[in-house]
Amino acid sequence: MDAKLQAMLSSLSPVARELDALPSGRPTPDNGCVKLNTNENPFPLPGIVMRSAIAALELQYLYPEDDNVSLRQAAAAAYGIATDCVMAGNGSSELLSLIYRAFLAPGDGVAMMSPGFSFNRKLAMLQGARFIEIPWSEPDCLPMDELLFGAAKHAKFILLANPNNPTGTFVPLAEIERLLIRSDRLIVLDEAYVDFAPEDGLRLVERHSNLLVLRTFSKSYSAAGIRVGFGFGHPELIGRLRNIQNVFNMNVVAHAVGMSVLAHRDAYEENHRHVRLERQRVAAALSEFGFSVTPSHANFLLARVPVGQGGRWWQAALEDHKVLVAFFPDAGLEECIRVSIGTKRQMDAFLPAVGSILKKVGCRG
Ligand SMILES: Cc1ncc(COP(=O)(O)O)c(C=O)c1O
């Protein structure tokens, strides 16, 4: 490293220095692979949504609408909520990072049900905040005492993804409402996967001022690459968050796709049905192979691998078969892989790959 570069890097903030640099020239590993590692929805946009995206390109010379007014209005109408309770984001991860910036000063605490969505750890670190992980004791109920009187007591907010990532487990709304009633903390309910689940928490927003619900079009609406997310909460809270948002945070294509998806959500019903059925089929097949599969309410499965090799080994073995799955070395998931539910063709590539790996290591397959 030359002296000038070294001097420049040494003036990074301590937090930015702590985060490991990404290896330069990192290859794109998913070339030609069946990509089941990031929970996208691999189906094309409905034709009408796609046409709105293409038409929006003709507006490329204009800034997008300030404060996403019409997109927020459309979301409000679609979800039956007041417009000033809605904010729109460049994916829900933009909204998550705004919440961290709005609430956390160095030394403050933020609590997350763990294992949970690991991006939150990085966001806490960027704020110099303490990241408090509250372990799940049961997959479908909250450790209420721990959240109310334990380590999370002084957290500025509590994060709960429902369905949860990477487990796919789901907490019934009645349980979440019990927490909202008893806690004076902000509860951030991240519903990235809720379209694959039995019920959603949006109606709780009008009843509880300490609730912020996040949604995304990345998982259930096939728009991960377009970046559309929404936040729903009390107008005072939403107003404060909108205040610190980037100007023109969404581009014109994201804006058009967001509007069009909101108008045509019924066009996705078949897609969501496919995901649920395929999830069931793949879970049964993996169980047959000797995996222990966590019942999932999302578009992915967390599976404990058969005794012998760990999750990292399975991830590499599947990659040799050109199938990408996720592995989480932290949070007690060393023996697990997470597999997104894709098209039937993708899953029909994944399952025989599992079978052939098992055959090679001398297990049934
Ligand atoms: C629980 C959870 N929340 C939020 C996100 C971010 O989604 P988006 O694409 O809207 O930024 C993800 C993506 O994996 C997720 O799993």
UniProtKB/TrEMBL annotation:
Pathway membership, UniProt: Amino-acid biosynthesis; L-histidine biosynthesis; L-histidine from 5-phospho-alpha-D-ribose 1-diphosphate: step 7/9
Keyword Transferase: yes
SUPFAM superfamilies: PLP-dependent transferases
InterPro entries associated with the record: Aminotrans_II_pyridoxalP_BS, Aminotransferase_I/II_large, HisP_aminotrans, HistidinolP_aminotransfase, PyrdxlP-dep_Trfase, PyrdxlP-dep_Trfase_major, PyrdxlP-dep_Trfase_small
Top-level enzyme category: transferase
EC number: 2.6.1.9
Residues modified as N6-(pyridoxal phosphate)lysine: 219
Keyword terms, alphabetized: Amino-acid biosynthesis, Aminotransferase, Histidine biosynthesis, Pyridoxal phosphate, Transferase
Domain Aminotransferase class I/classII large intervals: 33-351
Names of the cofactor(s): pyridoxal 5'-phosphate
An annotated GO BP: L-histidine biosynthetic process
Molecular-function annotations in GO: histidinol-phosphate transaminase activity; pyridoxal phosphate binding
Catalytic reaction(s) noted: L-histidinol phosphate + 2-oxoglutarate = 3-(imidazol-4-yl)-2-oxopropyl phosphate + L-glutamate
NCBIfam families: hisC (TIGR01141)
Family: Belongs to the class-II pyridoxal-phosphate-dependent aminotransferase family. Histidinol-phosphate aminotransferase subfamily.
Subunit composition and interactions: Homodimer.
Listed name of the protein: Histidinol-phosphate aminotransferase
Organism the protein comes from: Bradyrhizobium rifense
